[in-house]
Amino acid sequence: MFPVNPVRKEVLGEKAYARVTDVLQKVEHAYILIEDVEQALEDCGKAGVKVASIFSGGFADAGAEGMKRQARLAGRARELGVRLLGPNSMGVIDVPSGLAVSVNAVLEMPTLPAGSTSIVSQSGTMLGTLLSRGAARGLGFAKLVSVGNEADVGVGELVELLAADAATRVIVLFLETVRDAARLGAAARAAHAAGKPIVAYKLGRSSLGEAAARSHTGALAGSDAALDAYFSDCGIVRVDMLETLLEITPLLRKPPNLKRPGKVAVVTTTGGGAATVVDRLGMRGVELSGPIMDLTMAGGAATYAAALEKALQSDCDAVLAAVGSSAQFHPEVAVEPIVRAKVGKPIVTFFTPQADRSLALAAAAGIAAFRTPEACADALAAFFAWRTPRVRPTGEIDIGTAQGFELFSQLGVPVAPWAMAQAPEFRHSIPYPVALKRPGEHKTEGGGVVLGVKDHHDLQKKAAALNAERVLIQKMESGLMEAIVGYRDDPVVGPVVMVGAGGVLAEVYRDTEVRMAPVSEEEAQEMIARVKGFAAIRGYRNLPRGDVRALAQAVAAVSRLALAKGRPVLEAEINPLLVKVDGVVALDALVARKGDA
Amino acid sequence: MFPVNPVRKEVLGEKAYARVTDVLQKVEHAYILIEDVEQALEDCGKAGVKVASIFSGGFADAGAEGMKRQARLAGRARELGVRLLGPNSMGVIDVPSGLAVSVNAVLEMPTLPAGSTSIVSQSGTMLGTLLSRGAARGLGFAKLVSVGNEADVGVGELVELLAADAATRVIVLFLETVRDAARLGAAARAAHAAGKPIVAYKLGRSSLGEAAARSHTGALAGSDAALDAYFSDCGIVRVDMLETLLEITPLLRKPPNLKRPGKVAVVTTTGGGAATVVDRLGMRGVELSGPIMDLTMAGGAATYAAALEKALQSDCDAVLAAVGSSAQFHPEVAVEPIVRAKVGKPIVTFFTPQADRSLALAAAAGIAAFRTPEACADALAAFFAWRTPRVRPTGEIDIGTAQGFELFSQLGVPVAPWAMAQAPEFRHSIPYPVALKRPGEHKTEGGGVVLGVKDHHDLQKKAAALNAERVLIQKMESGLMEAIVGYRDDPVVGPVVMVGAGGVLAEVYRDTEVRMAPVSEEEAQEMIARVKGFAAIRGYRNLPRGDVRALAQAVAAVSRLALAKGRPVLEAEINPLLVKVDGVVALDALVARKGDA
Q1: Could you point out which of A106, B196, B408, B487 has its C-alpha 20 to 30 Å from the C-alpha of B84?
Q2: Cβ contact (<8 Å) for B203 and A275?
Q3: B208 CA to chain A: closest CA distance, Å?
Q4: In angstroms, what separates the C-alpha of B471 from chain A's closest C-alpha?
């Protein structure tokens, strides 16, 4: 390691060099901390430095001018053949080898714990946070990288590298945004192929948090629901709570790929303690495989071991082993039987008291142990939702210049018969009763839509009142329930398809399900099953059942916009799509192409 | 302390007595650990022991037989003049005086931290859990009581005592159920009057957790929404996460009584770290009072102190001071300025790294510090929702034997004009169109309700088809939206009133607001404002506005069932209550009196 400093001859007793070009040996990696990043980069180019990590800020983190400065810097680095990490990066730490190119204050720790978890973080501070919290628990780390603004090397490329890194077993991501969804998606698939699970914590669950994350990173705004869909699609486990990110790692071996709610068997030495986890599991839709085995004051290690064995052999997807006060001073009572259990199924443990030694015992044994009941439940729910990366339907379709109803008809979605009619006669061949719309109007509230026009006389009167030369005439349809089906080329993750219950109430409740597009009919059925409001057409309270299959076909059809040549569509929406006992029919449609005003 | 043991002469080197009656000195408090609780109690009676705490189980925790055994025991204790704590109690600990009548394993800790927080817990283990976790953080305790089955001394009475206890500043409750809501409610009001905040964690957020809590306590099942309403009514702060229960205590001084969302000012040395809290705050409806003051790498203590001062003087209800890596080894950078801040407004802190020393510094200074971003946000949201105990409307009304529409009319709720009509003529004076119902039928799905009957001929035909001697005729009404208004005498907390959006979708989404009954019209307006679905009548997307005031009047009217002499009504529901531009009207009603089959 060679200190480079233009004004000091010595740094911490080491000889300092004025410029990196003065160093006589070949420098592999430079860490730039000064304001004149551009000059330092030039020097790196001259000195043949392969990678420059940049701590300095004032780039994409600093508004429009900063963005331009960053683009210039990245361009120049390419010319010079220097790869960049940052700017705004806290650097790189490789724990097992003791390499630290970083300003992270966590390096003041007397020892850093080595392990096989590697972290890529968009927040430099959080890298230190995770490392220090893990160290206190006996959780060790391999490589830690703070990516900063990702002007060059990004999360996706690092995941590719970690997927191929023998020292890494699990990849942990702390994300504020996703800058290259395609590359990260491909890297996640490579990691899966290499047997390396990825777990992510991403800010932006609420618009407040999203804005906070963006304000100090200069990132794009995508939809959080789209990101959820994206992570699931790539086989990335998304956790809801910060500590879960670390605590879940031992649990991640391979995706359970469940198509039903996960089931947990519970063994505990404290009824109240187990209930704190079970209460949260219920909130997340997890089920119990049988009654809780409550061994409060019921004996020692042999009793606990026997109950644990019984739980492991039960019809469950994972075992929750909760331990009360004995976890603090008497690990031999219950913690040791857990640590020694033959792990056929996933085991997670929650220790109710302050139990640092027991947490370390579990960590050493590779068993997921949780400090809080909430993180424990979060981890189980995230684990059960974990699926193998999805193979998306492929192909290419040509949608030409079709708009609105024409486009959806072309995709294969049934559309209510319609025609354009011209003033003053407004002649058309749609059977009455019909609806009447001023072109471009979509909501009855606007006054440009008239429903239930009885006959031609009525039509002429009402069309004239609309004061339009041309009106859209559409057959009145009736059905059981309104749905909404949408497509969006999300700026962050790309094409997604959405289905939800229609109408004002459903809009207020945001009762929708989003997946990466395209989806198959079977996947669309899964989406529909997750929309609460569709209970009304799934046989709720003896109400008639709607044609869910036709709805799924419509969702799959709309999702195929993702296969359109050049992906010209920005957003498309059928609202409402009327679900009938037999079939579905689109009553209104909106399409926005990229480049539309 | 005198060991009592029928078979040993000595216990841990102390002389043991065969029976408590053998002890020559006056015994104040006995702790019974043996199976023959009944005999031990007789001895206590003879020996003039004032209080017997019972660790032994096999009472209400053990099914119907156990419940009977407990009733006998409690009865006998009353006769003997012995107060009981338990059965199934882990006992009592008074930390400042060093008194411990308990089997809790937490007592193996080298020292117990003294402080002014007292805990009453329905789970004995969780008492130790809270004590050991608090100790590791520098949070101290005064009195800790494990109430077990509450055969005699219960949570309510203990809160009364703690409200009057000079050593107690904050009262913490770990609850699995509420066994005497009236007494706890009165005690909570006494604690408020004494300036002592109460904070509760209660299991049963999900039905899974509720069942888990009940299975090992033999408690009654109430509705969690009703409990939420109850806690709010009594001025008890309810937290969502276990650690929040301890961590929030320094924050609780007096209720902010906000009638709008709480506003937080944020100062941080880590953008990502602050965003982890802010993201959750957004999910809980909390707002920011201004941009986040992000001081990442921006200097030392003076800069932080100045920003903190600015935040404290801003238009906010609380300040969130987040600290990154410096919290681990350099508390002088940001933690000390926080600890030294002149506290005019509530301050909460979140330290991102493992930072035990900083957490202890904050605890010593009486500043609420959080280990996780989620608990920090939970605490702020719970704090902002905290209100002074409510003074409920009082009085008594007489509802006689009225049922259904008659009862609601009598309460002052407008009801759609109706009449009973008799076969074969079905004569009535309600103007057409009308709805037709077979008595006792409430849903169109059942086939016993016919809507839109046009004229008397139509009526006779359709009434005959219903195959009933008497039918209910009701004027057809139209309006903007359906609401549901309900009343329930909850078995745990007593009378509650509920309002929600009507219809199948709203039912599926459980979009309802519950309060303790009765409520005033103004309180009903607050309830309505919290129901998402009513957005549709609050001027959403230019839709016409509904008569929210009339709806509030109807809610207040229904809530007055809580004032009915003898509280004869178990449940009552108007579904739907039609909300019109001008007024509301009940279209269907159900009333169940106590004792009805």
Answers
A1: B196
A2: yes
A3: 5
A4: 23
pTM, entire model: 0.94
Are B557 and B413 a contacting pair, CB within 8 Å? yes
Per residue, the 3-state secondary structure of B158-208, as one string, reads HHHHHHCCCCCCEEEEEECCCCCHHHHHHHHHHHHHCCCCEEEEECCCCHH
CA distance A136 to B367: 24
Kindly report the number of other CB atoms within 10 A of residue B258's CB atom: 14
Contact A213 B279 (CB under 8 A): yes
| Model pLDDT, residue A209 | 77
Nearest Cβ partner of A203 from B205, B269, B276? Answer: B276
Helix (H) or strand (E) holding A333: none
Q: Is the pLDDT of residue B376 over 80?
A: yes
Q: What is the pLDDT of residues A84-138, one digit of tens each?
A: 999 999 999 999 999 999 988 888 888 899 999 999 999 999 999 999 999 999 9
Burial of B540 (0-12, 13-18, 19+ CB in 10 A): middle
Query: Which two three-digit tokens encode residue B566?
Result: 């003898």
Residue from B107, B216, B325 whose CB has the most chain A CBs within 10 Å, to mutate = B325
Mean local confidence (pLDDT), B481-498 = 94
pLDDT at B216 over 60: no
Tell me the pLDDT tens digit for each residue of A492-514: 999 999 999 988 777 788 889 99
Among B389, B82, B450, CA closest to B233: B389
Chain B CB contacts of A505 under 8 Å are 501, 503, 505-506, 509, 533, 536
Strand partners, B120: B145, B173
Is residue A357's pLDDT more than 70?
Answer: yes
The answer to whether A235 and A388 are in contact (CB under 8 A) is yes
| A492 token code pair | 């962050």
For the segment B384-394, what is each residue's pLDDT rounded down to a tens digit?
A: 999 999 998 88
The minimal CB distance from B509 to the residues A129, A278, A509 is found for A509
- Contact yes or no for A287/A314 (Cβ under 8 A): no
- The alpha-helical segments, DSSP class H, found in B321-355 are 326-329, 335-340
Q: Backbone phi, then psi, for B44, in 5-degree steps? A: -60, -40
Among A264, A174, A549, A572, smallest CA distance to A405 is for A572
Tokens of B204: 């049963």
The residue to which tokens 């937490």 are assigned: B106
Burial grade of A311 (CB within 10 A; 0-12, 13-18, 19 or more): buried
Q: CA B297 from chain center: how many Å?
A: 43
Count interface pairs A-B at CB distance under 8 A. 290
**Residues of chain A positioned with their CB less than 8 A from the CB of B108:** 328-329
> What is the chain B residue with the closest CA to A205?
B279
Q: Do B543 and A504 touch (CB under 8 A)?
A: yes
Which residues of chain A does B506 touch, with a Cβ-Cβ cutoff of 8 Å? 505
**Chain Cα centroid distance, residue A225:** 8
Residues in chain A: 597
Could you tell me if the ipTM is greater than 0.85? yes
Task: Count CB atoms within 10 A of the CB of residue B252.
Answer: 23
Query: Which of B275, B292, B541 minimises the CB distance to A445?
Result: B541
Q: What angle do CA A392, A119, A217 make, to 5 degrees?
A: 80
Facing residue for A328 by CB, picked from B106, B243, B324: B106
The predicted model gives A218-227 an average pLDDT of 73
Judge residue B477's burial from the number of C-beta atoms within 10 Å of its C-beta, 0-12 exposed, 13-18 middle, 19 or more buried: middle
Q: What is the mean pLDDT of chain B?
A: 93
Question: Which is it for strands B368-370 and A494-501: parallel, antiparallel or unpaired?
Answer: unpaired
Q: Look at B276 and A373 and tell me if their CB atoms are within 8 Å.
A: no
Would you give the distance in Å from CA A23 to the centre of its chain?
44
Residues of chain B found within 8 Å of residue A241, distances taken between Cβ atoms:
372, 374
